[in-house]
Specification:
alpha+beta, five-stranded mixed sheet, two-stranded antiparallel ribbon, 11% strand
Length: 271
């Protein structure tokens, strides 16, 4: 005897597709982590983000320092090309006027304290040999329109000081490349402190002075300054003391700062 069973459509569906437990995949996923595990994951992500940010900051600093040293190298090459075109004579580095500024005919003209834009750079005698305006500025320097200054011992004369007579002794000033006794030890351009820089002249008071006339910049490192030398190479000086700008002719802040000043004096025109 055959029995016939009759199911409604709903009953048939229940048999074919039984209902699943009423919870979503999200609730299943969250149920797999404890609060402690989530906190550990968040902590790891935070640490990784911090490490990445620190690495990027260091990379940016290295990039800016490399760019700055490239600028100094280009300036020195232009300086050498000028001398080559002018029978070995160094491009003028003259000063005068109030406030202190570079005179017309100098490697740059005017002062970063009063110049607007790159006018003083474009009017300079060195500009035809290096026509890239950004090369006169460190990419980390956002305060001025020029970052670099030239050795005060190179073809310098101050129109404001009638007590100076030309030519100055060779240990104080040279006018031609052939007069530079030790090109590899004689600095040419230096990255100057934003508070100190005005004209194109980086002044170093002659020994036995214990005051900084102008001050080097340490924008890439608290204890280092980039500068170029007369043979074309570029390097950084390691200072013993921090370089903090206060005023022109500021006294050395202590024995370490005085040692730094003596080192800088030795790089003006070593014999």
């Amino acid at each position: 005897m055959h029995r016939h069973f009759h199911f409604s459509a709903i009953q048939r569906g229940a048999l074919i597709c039984p209902r699943r437990p009423e919870h979503s995949r999200l609730s299943t996923f969250c149920a797999g982590f404890t609060l402690l595990e989530l906190l550990v994951v968040i902590a790891i992500i935070t640490i990784l983000a911090s490490v990445l940010a620190s690495g990027l900051a260091r990379a940016r600093q290295v990039s800016r320092r490399t760019s700055c040293e490239s600028n100094l190298r280009q300036l020195t090459l232009a300086w050498l090309l000028y001398a080559d075109d002018n029978e070995g004579h160094i491009v003028p580095n003259r000063t005068g006027g109030e406030p202190p500024q570079s005179s017309p005919g100098s490697w740059v003209v005017g002062s970063v304290k009063t110049n607007t834009g790159a006018l003083g750079t474009r009017m300079g005698a060195l500009f035809p040999y290096l026509r890239t305006v950004p090369a006169y500025m460190c990419s980390a320097d956002l305060s001025t329109n020029r970052s670099y200054a030239m050795n005060c011992g190179f073809n310098w004369f101050d129109n404001n000081d009638p007590s100076l007579t030309e030519p100055l002794p060779a240990c104080y000033m040279v006018t031609t490349l052939s007069q530079i006794a030790k090109p590899a030890d004689t600095f040419t351009f230096i990255d100057e402190s934003p508070g100190s820089i005005d004209d194109g002249f980086f002044g170093i008071n002659w020994p036995p002075s214990s005051t900084w006339l102008n001050l080097p910049a340490t924008r890439h490192d608290e204890r280092r300054t980039s500068l170029s030398y007369s043979d074309g190479h570029v390097t950084r000086i390691q200072w013993l003391a921090p370089k903090i700008w206060i005023q022109y002719d500021q006294p050395a802040s202590g024995p370490d700062d005085l040692s730094d000043l003596v080192l800088m004096q030795s790089k003006v025109l070593p014999q």
